[in-house]
Amino acid sequence: MSKKLTICSIVGARPQFVKLQPFSKQLRKYYHEIIIHTGQHYDKNMSETFFQELAIPEPDYNLNIGSTMHGQQTGNMLAKIEQLLIKINPDAVVVFGDTNSTIAGALAAVKLHIPTIHVEAGLRSFNRSMPEEINRVATDHISDFLFAPTEEAMANLKQEGLEKISLLSGDIMVNSLSNAVERSSVKKGLLKSIGLASGKYYLLTLHRPQNVDNQDNLVLILSQLNKLDFPVIFPIHPRTNNILKNDHTARKSFDNIIFIEPQSYLSFIYLQLHSYKILTDSGGIQKEAYILRKPCLTIRSETEWVETVKTGWNRLCTPSDPQLVNIIKDFSPPTEHPEIFGSQVAEKIVNKIKSMING
Ligand code: UD1
Predict the structure, then answer these.
(1) CATH classification of the domain holding 323
(2) Model-level pTM?
């Protein structure tokens, strides 16, 4: 039997571990996979717990890059990934999503003339002040092949002249979620331990720089949400926690908000499944909310996941809107719920890779 070709998957941040799981499982049927973890996320509950719960193979390399300024973080990754890729000499490199780890991985690979594949391509917020938007556009335009999660993403790629190297595969998080929903029942003691009843709480996440890096903005958002009709449970991202942690008075004054640590993947799915409504500024959670049929209110002025808004299941909200509390309370999606993220996505992606990269 001929030796399997080697494909290197590069990840670094929480949402990428979730996407890696079904991809890796399918890829390993045909290829030798090497996982590089940049170390962009490094806290136990932002990284290690995800690998354990999702049963993702241990990364072969962890670059321990950690947190610093964006340019420095991306540059440090680039230098270390380049060295590693020279050593590994893979037959292809795969990057996921839109983080600094994505652009660093893609740039290192293409400069070494290694075929570079981007999973979750074509998303656009058209807001250049988001670091993720720069990462997406740049990664799409330097990669050799692009997998688009939605028709809208595919249309963006066509518009930018990238159609010939793109395939509408659907969204790989569909596979991640379908594996996790059933398994999340192991977390059934969670609500009781927090003192919440199923269907009677809002689930909140916030980590986007525009919402959290300015303490006044963050306090404005939390002050509004504190007035909601059910408790708000808030697994707090380290970035957001860093902003709030020196202000205990602010935290205490939000008596309708329950601050908890960042949750593991299965715990977070469980919290979503039992929530009344979801409030977020995360891209991945807008998708998960849609697939799980939960009403979602996105605290941002635009979204890359436009289909979730067009179908009426997601609504964009501005933190400074004096009507924010009423908008959230009154939001009620329609009964129609079309499939927008596809199915058997990991299989489609790996089949296409097989048609491009074989021995
Ligand atoms: C990153 C991604 C974002 C993704 C998000 C998911 C970029 C530009 N952004 O944002 O697209 O949606 O991950 O969570 O790549 N920190 C810790 N421990 C950790 C990780 C981070 O304490 O394990 C703190 C550090 O203080 C750091 C801050 O969080 O400065 C931000 O982390 P970083 O990875 O730079 O960006 P995120 O906001 O997590």
Answers:
(1) 3.40.50.2000
(2) 0.95
